[in-house]
Specification:
The structure holds two protein chains of two kinds. Chain A is α/β, with parallel strands linked by helices. Chain A contains five helices and twelve strands. The C terminus of chain B is likely disordered. Classes of the chains: A alpha/beta, B alpha/beta. The structure holds iron/sulfur cluster (SF4).
Chain lengths: 219, 489
């Protein structure tokens, strides 16, 4: 620390950090969108990054989740403790439910086919969903080890336009995971390959009316 | 390690390497331009990014203290390492305290800079690189050649052979069916590394950012190997350069827009993880942060060179550099290749060695690196400043102590520097590209001359060309010392 102070001998002693100007003239949001346009942009950008996007409403959600699990031939599904019970109500009992608990080891999770979670917020401009490990999302590991992740976004309430709006809604004390498309690498001759380590398939369900009276992200 | 020109001579003869590099840099460069064009406030973001970093650097003592208390309050432990040896010793002891002999690693330039894997190996600890490219480099007993795509000098066929031959020595062997299709190679890596992740007790990472206000660390990645190393082990050790700090959580809104678009040309990279100390039953139970100096305070002490510490390691400057494109990353002899390497390495290590003295000359001063840099580091300005230091000596800070170094004249270092300049000149395409770009970057040029010209330029308008273009410099140095240069080489 003394070394650092010596290195900064040119900085006047009276200067406070705030005295170094940072102009925030960049935009809070790029463009002017209605809430439904924001949701459309989110869907478009998620798909751009090779997430599979579905749209539905609350009554149809359980059937959709059941179908997506069946399409993948899932035999087991990891579930965060706070996920609404109704979401899995249409999934047959033959699909093993694996609750997220502290006892669940990485090896246990490696044997699980799929995981279903909610999210904390989704960012349209970048096509990002953010998980903050709340009870309906579970610990970070459950969305990492299984090969198939279904993430449910409540629209339009959980959708914001931009990175600044997204950060504002998040609590830095929580462990955050920002996900933009499935795991990917371009390390071999710049050819993009999905899924080296994380889930190879990311399915995102936008649930709720595509447009609502509330404006997303402005509250 | 030979000086830049010798290493570059070898690598430019490697046509495969050059073809790969050319393809990679041009592809990423073109994509990046598109990604940046999507944001019409790019220049404001860039200015804010530079300003936030300047604020952090000018008050680094304040922010590091704030960071230390925040990390400690959140359940982490903070260690300070003055140099590479100290950092390696701290990490080795931390690993030994867990009783483990194996660790999994997230790709990190800081640990590469200090040679951590070698230090751990000496202590009988095996470090597994888990980034796909780093794995290719590690299994091939090789060195990374690019910040973003470290194994870009390898072709799929070579990678297949490396996997087939070497995986078994490190763990799960490559599958019988392994072809050279990228999807197959990625699958082989997935299987090989999954075994490591699921059993790992200790993870080692770097970080892209540290937030002083909250004690939050941030890792930006694509593959998910970072998430594996940050969440599955019981102990996490993060080795981070002290310059990676930003003041507030809100500041991330700037860097999370600048970094992915500059680096991989994506709107956002697939995964970004943040962690603040430890979290109950979610992720490692023990978290150590090792704050690394290793020449950074010496760099900080140099008011011209200080700006190199703003670098967020996006690698955009590599992809536009005509010299890097031909010479490749290995020629720079350090963890930091390309234009940023040419200014950061000689500052972190000093300019006394032949290699380090030659690096400030490994450039055509075309200015393209400055133009793309998301935190507006004036790389040409620092290059000229460092050339002056090589040739004329002057006051510097070495391990925290102010001292005056002698000019390198007549010594091996200067000869190496001159040869590096000649090397760049002898590659006409390098020069041409440089000059073409130079005409487009004038508007960014330094307001004042660095070095001895400063007093002069303080009271005068500079012409619209740089104070010393490559050609001017060449003519001046060759004109003055042409015969002498010939004598000494
Ligand atoms: S110097 Fe600038 S362009 Fe180069 S890697 Fe660092 S931040 Fe990126």
């Amino acid at each position: 620390m003394a070394r650092i102070r010596r290195a900064l001998a040119d900085v006047p002693r009276a200067e406070t950090p705030d005295a170094v100007p940072v102009e925030r003239t960049y935009h809070r949001v790029h463009g002017d969108r209605t809430p439904s346009e924001t949701v459309d942009l989110l869907a478009e950008h998620l798909a751009d990054y090779r997430a599979i996007v579905h749209r539905t409403d609350a009554p149809a959600l359980p059937a959709l989740i059941a179908r997506l699990l069946a399409d993948r031939g899932a035999t087991s599904v990891a579930l965060p403790p706070g996920l609404p019970d109704s979401w899995l109500s249409a999934v047959p009992d033959a699909v093993r439910r694996v609750p997220d608990t502290a006892e669940l080891t990485p090896h246990d999770l490696d044997a699980v086919s799929s995981v279903v979670t909610a999210c904390a917020v989704a960012i349209a401009e970048t096509g990002t969903v953010v998980l903050d490990a709340a009870p309906d999302q579970g610990r970070r590991r459950i969305t990492l080890v299984p090969d198939h992740h279904i993430c449910v976004i409540r629209v339009p309430d959980q959708v914001v336009d931009s990175v600044p709006e997204g950060l504002e809604r998040l609590d830095p004390a929580r462990p955050l995971t920002w996900i933009s498309g499935p795991s990917a690498t371009s390390d071999i001759e710049l050819d993009r390959v999905e899924g080296v380590h994380g889930p190879r398939t990311l399915e995102v369900i936008l649930t709720g009316p595509p447009a609502g009276p509330e404006t997303a992200g402005q509250s | 390690m030979p000086a830049f020109p010798a290493a570059a001579d070898a690598s430019t003869r490697n046509t495969q390497l050059r073809a790969n590099l050319r393809h990679a840099t041009h592809t990423i460069r073109a994509k990046r331009a598109t990604a940046v064009a999507e944001l019409d406030d790019w220049s404001s973001l860039r200015a804010a990014g530079a300003a936030i970093k300047d604020r952090s650097l000018r008050h680094l003592d304040h922010y590091l203290e704030q960071l230390e208390s925040a990390v400690t309050a959140a359940g982490g432990h903070v260690h300070w390492a003055a140099d590479a040896d100290e950092a390696n010793r701290i990490v080795t002891e931390l690993v030994q305290a867990t009783g483990e002999r194996e660790v999994v690693k997230v790709k990190s330039m800081a640990t590469q800079e200090i040679g951590l894997n070698g230090a751990l190996a000496t202590a009988g600890i095996t470090a597994y690189e888990t980034d796909l490219a780093e794995l290719i480099v590690q299994l091939g007993d090789d060195l990374p050649s690019h910040i973003l795509v470290p194994a870009i000098h390898r072709n799929r066929g070579e990678i297949r052979d490396i996997f087939a031959e070497k995986m078994a020595q490190w763990g799960r062997p490559a599958p019988e069916w392994l072809t050279d299709a990228p999807a197959d190679l990625a699958e082989a890596a997935r299987l090989h590394l999954r075994e490591k992740f699921l059993n790992a007790k200790v993870g080692i990472s770097g970080a892209n950012f540290m937030v002083a206000e909250t004690g939050t660390l941030v890792v930006v990645e694509s593959e998910g190997n970072g998430r594996m190393c940050l969440t599955l082990p019981e102990t996490l050790i993060s080795v981070v350069g002290i310059e990676k700090i930003v003041p507030t959580f809100q500041d991330l809104e700037v860097f999370l827009q600048l970094l992915p678009r500059s680096s991989t040309a994506e709107r956002m990279n697939p995964y970004t993880s943040t962690w603040t100390g430890t979290t109950d039953a979610d992720g490692p139970r023990t978290f150590h942060l090792v704050l690394l100096d290793n020449g950074r305070t010496d760099t900080l002490a140099d008011t011209v060179g200080r700006q190199a510490l703003r670098c967020i390691r996006c690698s955009a400057c590599l992809n536009v550099c005509p010299v890097y494109e031909r010479a490749g990353g290995h020629a720079y002899g350090s963890a930091y290749p390309g234009p940023i390497g040419a200014i950061l390495t000689p500052q972190l290590r000093g300019v006394q060695s032949e290699l380090d003295a030659s690096l400030p000359y490994a450039s055509s001063l075309c200015g393209a690196c400055y133009e793309v840099c998301p935190v507006a580091i004036d790389i040409p300005e620092v290059l000229v400043h460092l050339r002056e230091r090589v040739v004329e000596g002057g006051p510097v800070s070495v391990r925290g102590t102010r001292t005056v170094i002698k000019p390198a004249k007549g010594h091996a270092a200067e000869r190496a520097a001159m040869r590096a300049a000649r090397w760049a000149l002898d590659h006409p395409r390098v020069l041409r590209t440089g000059q073409r770009l130079a005409s487009r970057t004038r508007r960014f040029h330094p307001r004042r001359l660095p070095g001895p010209g400063r007093a002069w330029s303080d009271t005068r308008e500079l012409p619209k060309v740089p104070e010393e273009s490559f050609r001017d410099w060449w003519q001046r140095t060759r004109g003055e010392s042409g015969t002498e240069g010939r004598k000494t080489t």
